[in-house]
Amino acid sequence: MGGHIPTLDDLGDVRGKRVLVRTDFNVPMENGAITDDFRIRAALPTINWLTEHGATVVTASHLGRPKGAPNPKYSMDAVRARLAELAPGVELLENLRFDPGEEGNDPAFVARLVDGIDAYVDDAFGAAHRAHASIVGPPQTLPSAMGLLLQKEVEVLLGLRNDPKHPFVAVLGGAKISDKLGVVEALLGVVDSLVVGGAMCFTFLAAQGHRIGDSLFEPDQVDTCRRLLSGATEQGKTIHLPDDIVGVDADGNYATFGNELPDGAKGFDIGPGTAAAFSDVIMDARTVFWNGPMGMFEDDRFAAGTRTVAQAMADTKAFTVVGGGDSAAALAQFGLDDDVDHVSTGGGASLELLELGDLPGLEALRKAPNA
Ligand code: 3PG
Ligand code: MG
Q1: How many Cβ atoms are within 10 Å of 208's Cβ, its own excluded?
Q2: Entry pTM
Q3: Using CA positions, which residue lies closest to atom 1 of ligand 1?
Q4: 131 pLDDT above the threshold of 70
Q5: 48, 68, 230, 363: which one has the fewest Cβ atoms less than 10 Å from its Cβ?
Q6: What pLDDT is stored for residue 72 in this prediction?
Q7: Nearest Cα to 20, choosing from 357, 368, 257, 295?
């Protein structure tokens, strides 16, 4: 894990050089239009640094999961147009994942990528957990560096992992506990308490013996949740779970329940009592990491829990970090994205960095010839 990761200054003089910048321009799109350009704007400090230092910048990214074949649905055209507005004259290659060599980490694809390139910068934090060609390939031969975004993300997230101010609270939501097991276990080692909402709470509630009606849950993870709950207790940590739930009853009508759901009922959000309790935990913390919405916030009827948690994130004096994806989208939807200390551009990458303390993209940079 140790070892120096070169930064932009370690590239030496970039004047007149062609620099390949791996960005994560995997932005949300609807009908061919970008719905949130956060990831494009986040790469601008690095792009501008390089152009101001006289480099010619060539950016490259994946978009979606086209599975190794060209597909107009995943073309970079809309991103290229937006980038041209934000950083005129900066080149953007076609979707890296149109070539199977990207995900396959094929040396021949790496060779094509670095052809005519003098230096490499990785600023694609959101993809740094993927050992793909454009991420781990170029640093094998080119002078390389992490960009300013990647550097900031690593600093903030490793800071949480290694030296958080206590109380440190992690708020987790989203659908699947199975996706987040590793990070839950790792977080239990560093946090003082864990707050669990979203659909994943039903697997925990089931593990405690509560009735969850027809709510989404993962039956094969109930034992694991039981183990996590007793492990937390042994370590003197608290896992906060909902004690009221909002959803629909067996007839499909909107309803509020306690933590026992009748047969046929489905939970889609944490209830108002739970939202208030979760918000108190966030207000009393000195560090908060939040990943995953508390409910189906795209539907206004089930947005209140996520909105209350987002508002507490904005209001607390704690150092607040939001891990990419849906929770960042929720913050933006409520207009609160400027009120937290750090919104990560990475969902999976931020969780993996918190869990493991390292990422394939960082390992690759440590082995660069100029490191
Ligand atoms: C993301 O959006 O999480 C990153 O861009 C990585 O994309 P992937 O999960 O398709 O590898
Ligand atoms: Mg604040």
Answers
A1: 13
A2: 0.93
A3: 126
A4: yes
A5: 230
A6: 95
A7: 368
